[in-house]
């Protein structure tokens, strides 16, 4: 990092409005991206991105803290070799702030958008730039059409996926299962049988929590989606997320009731927290923790829950906690994987922006990021050997498996007013005792 | 009304000159019941903060499983929360000191500008005669209700695209980078603070004794001169008072800073860092306990050190009965 | 990464530029104000001498003052136009348009507001907030100010009540979420309120789930913050009551109660109005508390929170703007009151 102050020139006090003072300075002090080692051997892989030395690309995302450090680390070599300076900013207010910045004419060059619904909104408004030919080729080479369709609007591809997660997991304690002689269930009926066995042993089998600050409710939407995928199948699921069938279709009601047979069952929940009513106020981060103290045995949550366990908890097939795949309900419908991820969308089509966009879709990037740890991607070039964490490894295996039917988190596909609004709120009401029909009716009427 | 009340300086002196007698008179008003009620209020007001304070010294899993009051029977003390807040684990989020400087660089001008402009405006609205002044005042007052969220997009566009009237660029875009973006934040905070500032200062300035102004005017002093030599000294305490509120507001602001300065350690204030501390998925909230106390220290110091002016300030202003 | 002071230099430089700009702008303005009217002043002096001798009015003075006043008001007015007036007009226009703001839809957004049951609830909640918060916060602030006045530990006592003001809304909400926290009855409570209930032999409750109690509990947070503001301003006003009035009343043998109603309250009326009006407007705009505590779930949402959700999270610009316009409308009674107040003051 530069020790010297950057040269500042031409400071102008504009008398505009008495206060408006604008400082025009030339940002020549580009301390990163010296081209000195650009020709070394390890830079050979980046040859195709060259020619943008000294250019700056801004990225906006919801990724913060340690994970943001890892991002910066993951493209460090790319920056050094190409001389492109990537300026990443993560914000917890990403979803609300991105539209403000875009409308205000202050859009970032690239944004990592986790909601295809939001991506579509920007694409429809003409704010996004379609991907360049290089990016398109790279994306199509490395990601399955299943994934790319989520960032394709009216036949135009607007970005490649980046990180992903697998949501169809049930966390449990291998240690506890071994001690008690329980086995991992592979069918829904086994799962219910196991739940009854556990309940009979005096432990409430399931723990869950849907409190998540201003996103309260989302963990329950994942539950519903996972069940719907298994009871009605991916085709119906697609119709549901695109409003091809009403939100309160009988098939959806059935899925809700089935999920309710666990979530709203006083016998089953809420291990370690109290009754069904405690679901709404238990934060999703804490929700699975009772597994480590033996007060609860099962917790359905995504792969990223691996980071939520108390320090010192060993994650692994023979460790303190691990996850099994959410079993199929109807063998005919199979067990599609529910997941999420973010897409690299561009608000700008300058060549260096496209270069970065292409790079982020590449196998080199995926492996570079995976090596740093705690990361999953559906990128086909991702080498399993670079994935250390066992749950991430399992996730990557599932995502890369050719036979896997993948579906994106439905609430992220719907218009935000539904997917991040009435659906979440409806779930909160639902776990608090409101009946299935009126909850679904309420959500349906909000979808215009 | 104004003529029957004592002038400001005399009022101040009188209270100051006879502290013992008045003190005795007033102290008798404090019955035991009143003392009890005030103690109850003080306790209720302090306990939540105190609980947080105690929690900030407790280990993470203790916070999540037992009440903070158990600290006294089973003290488990750690400084880890503060260590993480102050020195961080994340390299890209930078050093706390850096955010601290950002907060200062944002706050100081954001307090000074609205104070100066509002004082000028409030004086004009209170003591100068021109047509429609009451309506101007009422309009400014009413602007308090405009939610600043609704102002973000237009203001951002003002900075990023300038002003264009009928295809003609009237004002250019600002095109600021890095720490120059502070200027945008100052501008935004000043805009948003003005209605309340004008309202409060007008209330104050309009209650200054009219004979004082009249006398000055008869002596031939111009309005600018009256403002500088008579009004400013008298309202310095009121300025200090509003300054504190504006300071607290800007210091605790997250939204305006995020929009107009961005969230990098180049420009983001302490609040942005504290919000970030909750982790990407909000799981590290035990750190917020320590974070809250780190951010509260400066406002408290400011309040305690300005409290003196503050009290005297409003003292003069409310003389009018 | 070591902390590098040199890297912070540009920021200090920028701060310095800001301060220079401040001095230049404000100083320049004052200078300008001095120079421009200087020749007016010289002429007026002569007129004044003549006028004060004859007692005749100065017919042209008003006009000149208007010109001068413009300079006093210029920075404020320009900033307000850019920062608030334009956005307010834009918001009003957007409220008659659809969610992408490219088609006029007439009153549809307003129709939506009153036909959607959850939004009607939001409007009702907002009214409850606006009625309760100023009343309770001001009352507590006033009582406390009167009671600790001249008490032995006054400064400390006042700092305690003021402290919540120094905490951001989000911080305050987190603190209170802690107080309201719930754990199942077989577990140890971590929330103070439930601990108290349990130790009194009751059942722990999920406070934030119980409507309409939860709205009141959120109001407590706002009162907790704003009482400090009320206390500080009112306490200063009380101190300003001229000592001779208090003494005279004392000698007349009035009780503390009478003293409060007959002397204290009338004397601090202007300050009281300022406090109530300021807190009322702050309450109308509050959204962080609701957002952090419940995100408007369990029937606790208020207009400002719903506006933020609609406009920013759901991309429903029309509906969000319409809610903002309702906020404008709600403030009209206060504006009318202010106009009346101002008239009285001018006549008085």
From TrEMBL, chain A:
InterPro entries: Bact_solute-bd_prot1, SBP. The lineage of its organism: Bacteria, Bacillati, Actinomycetota, Actinomycetes, Micromonosporales. Residues 1-25 form the signal peptide. Gene3D superfamilies: Periplasmic binding protein-like II (3.40.190.10). Keywords: Signal, Transport. Belongs to the bacterial solute-binding protein 1 family. SUPFAM superfamilies: Periplasmic binding protein-like II (SSF53850). This is ABC transporter substrate-binding protein. It holds the Pfam family SBP_bac_1.
Automatic annotation (TrEMBL), chain B:
GO terms for biological process: transmembrane transport. Signal peptide: none annotated. InterPro entries: MetI-like, MetI-like_sf. One of its GO terms (cellular component) is plasma membrane. It comes from the Bacteria. Residues 1-16 have a biased composition (Low complexity). The chain crosses the membrane at residues 33-54, 99-123, 135-156, 186-205, 226-251, 288-306. The keyword Transport applies. It is found in: Cell membrane. Residues 1-20 are annotated as: Disordered. Keywords: Cell membrane, Membrane, Transmembrane, Transmembrane helix, Transport. Its main location: membrane. It is a multi-pass membrane protein. This is Carbohydrate ABC transporter permease.
Automatic annotation (TrEMBL), chain C:
SUPFAM superfamilies: MetI-like (SSF161098). The keyword Transport applies. InterPro entries: ABC_transporter_permease, MetI-like, MetI-like_sf. Its main location: membrane. The keyword Secreted does not apply. It is a multi-pass membrane protein. PANTHER family: ABC TRANSPORTER PERMEASE PROTEIN (PTHR30193), OSMOPROTECTIVE COMPOUNDS UPTAKE PERMEASE PROTEIN GGTC (PTHR30193:SF18). Belongs to the binding-protein-dependent transport system permease family. This is Sugar ABC transporter permease. It comes from Micromonospora globbae. The lineage of its organism: Bacteria, Bacillati, Actinomycetota, Actinomycetes, Micromonosporales.
